[in-house]
Amino acid sequence: MPEPTAAVDAAVRRELALLDPQVRRSPARLGALLHPDFHEFGASGRHWDRASVIAALTEGGETGPGTAPVVISRPRGVQLAPDVVHLTFATEHHGRRAHRSSLWRLTGDGWLLYFHQATPFDAPRT
């Protein structure tokens, strides 16, 4: 695997910020991380655009005080082009697991999340 670049590091920091409950409760902070053309295919199978994600996260109950944190594992990143970074990782939240894939684009406002996809998976059997 290639060595992480400054771009990959920046995208990882911003991805982690998106998982911070304080960021997820703030439309301004959340919006500052999402590209104007952002869209997502969620673990539910639903297609989300920027406005619907901001509304769901800032109004939803999953980001309130005392909410369990989102735990990430197996983060990996690669810089595909000077202005594109691809991240993959797994998450667990409230017992639900998902493989995740994010595309980050460098803009005049810094690295912004352009596309995200989550695919649910079951825990490995032991």
Explain what you see.
By secondary structure, this protein is an alpha+beta fold. The chain has a single domain, classed as Nuclear Transport Factor 2, Chain: A (Roll). It has helices at residues 6-18, 21-24, 27-31, 50-59; strands at 34-41, 47-49, 71-81, 84-93, 96-107, 110-121. It has a six-stranded mixed sheet. Strand 5 and strand 6 (110-121) form a beta hairpin. The radius of gyration is 14 Å and the shape is globular. The model has no long low-confidence stretch (mean pLDDT 89).
Keywords:
Nuclear Transport Factor 2, Chain: A, alpha+beta, 4 helices, 126 residues, 6 strands, 6-stranded mixed β-sheet
Précis, in short:
It is built from four helices and six strands. It has 126 residues and is of the alpha+beta class.
Write the layout of secondary structure elements.
Layout: H1 6-18, H2 21-24, H3 27-31, E1 34-41, E2 47-49, H4 50-59, E3 71-81, E4 84-93, E5 96-107, E6 110-121
Parallel strand pairs: 1-6
Antiparallel strand pairs: 1-2, 3-4, 4-5, 5-6
User: Helix count, per DSSP?
Assistant: 4
Structural class, by secondary structure, is: alpha+beta
What fold name goes in the CATH topology slot? Nuclear Transport Factor 2, Chain: A
How many DSSP E strands? 6
The CATH class: Alpha Beta
Please give the domain count.
1
Annotated CATH architecture: Roll
